[in-house]
Amino acid sequence: MDIYKFVVSNSIRNYLKRINYKFSTQEAAFLVWYCETATLEEKFGAWEEIINTMPNCSMQERIDMEAIPDFHKFLIDYIKLQKKLLNKFKTAEKSIYSCEMYQRKYTGIHYEYKVFNQYDECVAYGIKEFDSELCDRAVITKHKWGCKEGERQDEKCYINSSGAVLSMDCMVKNVQERKINAAFDGMWFDFPTPFHAGDIVCSHYKQAEPYVLTGICTWNASRIKQELPKTEYTERYLSMRGEIQKRIYKDGDTSDMECRGYGISMDECVGISVWKEILPMRSYLDLEYYSLSLSGTNDVLALISGTLRGEYNIEFLLNAYSMLIFKNSFEKKLMELQTNFGKDQVADIGIFK
Questions:
Q1: I need a surface site. Which of 243, 258, 307, 341 has the fewest CB within 10 A?
Q2: Alpha-carbon dihedral angle through residues 332, 335, 341, 346, given to the nearest 10 degrees
Q3: What is the DSSP letter of 68?
């Protein structure tokens, strides 16, 4: 079966195809679960095909995942549970539904919603109001009343422009069912990727926000030494990295599937700030090569990238950085003058022709 189509990142998908990567049963099932654009029905079909065509296996217990002695049975139980939760979500008992649009590509926030008595009415509204240019999904929230103290009152279901369910965030009371429902979140995998330190990258979901990559959670100490100049790490960090690698391979979950890098932020008081930390994306599986032209404050990322790759020395880095700061400040001030006084008047004094 074509598991590649469930790989979110175009860059990673093309690389895995190029190296003819063979997925294990667990990896294939995880990628199906992770894919946010696939509908639940598509995922059910893929998991059933995995059960029928790929070998059965097991997974050892992890901190946030109970041991899975029979992976095929786990998938059967998981599909059954998701169908049960969806049917329960659609049943309007002591509850109402609201629909919101979700702009993850731009603001990452919800906006404007209406309330309905029935699930189908709410979905119909979502389909009608869906704007594919602005939104990548709609959020159906089930608001319940008469709940016991401490019991969750809201549950969510995410749909695409056709009204098909993508995923759910529902309360699971039964302890065993809760373990099944949370199992994929408790997994961690080391998938091959094409990226190197110094690559200018972005999230698949926010491709206008570039960063310079410095590391992926799958890189061990040897890989870090190979990828980065000595100024980017210490021997103590490499030693710690070894211990971290042991932990995440044994007990890591999706929250450990991180990547790190440099980013640029702009503050009215401070000006341009360069930071280095965990990149703001769901996991390294969302990484894409940045394909747009760098401009404005993001020009600095090209300097950082070249320095990490050994293309620029310190003298060039500092002087070029100063010039870019001046260039951005000049262009901003010039735009203000043109806006306030007009291009012709600014041209009269020889600043702009």
A1: 243
A2: 90
A3: B
